[in-house]
Specification:
By secondary structure, this protein is mainly α. It is about 85% helix and about 0% strand. The two termini are about 15 Å apart. The model has no long low-confidence stretch (mean pLDDT about 80).
Length: about 55
């Protein structure tokens, strides 16, 4: 699951770069959504990792 969170993070950063430089205006909103998905998956990964000791 950590692999997916890293993929979402990379995609969110790339979309954010495009959106903040005005290349694609919709990319900024996509970056926000992907960033929140990344945060949720990251927290789930942390919790699941601690419980599987």
């Amino acid at each position: 699951m950590l692999k997916w969170t890293l993929i979402f993070l990379i995609v969110a950063v790339v979309a954010g770069i495009f959106g903040f430089f005005g290349i694609v205006e919709a990319a900024a909103s996509i970056a926000k959504v992907l960033f929140f998905i990344f945060l949720v998956l990251f927290v789930i990964s942390l919790v699941m990792g601690r419980t599987r000791t």
